Amino acid sequence: WLRLMFVRENGEDLYLGQAIPRYWLSNGEKIGIEKAATYFGPLSLQIKSESGKGQITAVLNPPNRNSPKNIYLRLRHPDSKLIRSVTLNGKSYINFDADKEWIILPGNIQGVQELVAYY
C-alpha cells in the first residue's frame, strides 16, 4: 500500500503521489521513495514542503526503460490550497490542473527534474 501511495501505473501513464495524505506535506516535512520498481523502469521521487511559504518542491528522477505516455504528479497542499503556478527546472511550466492537483509531464523526460508548485 505504501508504494501505491507514491507510484501507480495505469495503462500507458504513470501516477506519482496520488494517494499521499495531505498532512504528510505539512510545512517542513520531507518524504520520498528511492529506486521504486515500475513497468517503466526504476524511479525516485523526493518531496519537500515549504507550505508555510506557499510552495512544495518535488525532485523526480524519472524511469527510462519504457517511457510512459504521461507522468502525473500530485502535490497536495496540506490546507487544500490550489496550485497557482509551477516551475520545471526553474522555468515557468503551464501544464497543470489546479482543480485536480496534477502536474502533467511528458513521459519521455530524461534526467533529474525539479518541480516547484506555488500556492
Descriptive terms for the model:
119 residues; mainly beta; 6-stranded antiparallel β-sheet; globular
Task: Walk me through this protein's architecture.
The protein contains 1 helix and 11 strands. Strand 1 and strand 2 (13-16) form a beta hairpin. It has a 6-stranded antiparallel β-sheet with strand order 3-4-5-11-7-8, with no helix packed on it. The protein has a 5-stranded mixed β-sheet with strand order 1-2-6-10-9. The protein is mainly beta.
Shape: globular
> Percent range for helical residues?
under 10%
Low-confidence runs (pLDDT<50, min 5 residues)?
none
Radius of gyration, rounded?
13 Å
Summed up, what is this model?
The chain has 119 residues and is mainly β. It is built from 1 helix and 11 strands.
Q: What secondary-structure arrangement, pairings included, does this model have?
A:
Elements: H1 2-6, E1 7-10, E2 13-16, E3 30-36, E4 43-50, E5 55-61, E6 70-74, E7 85-88, E8 91-93, E9 96-97, E10 102-106, E11 113-118
Parallel strand pairs: 2-6
Antiparallel strand pairs: 1-2, 3-4, 4-5, 5-11, 6-10, 7-8, 7-11, 9-10
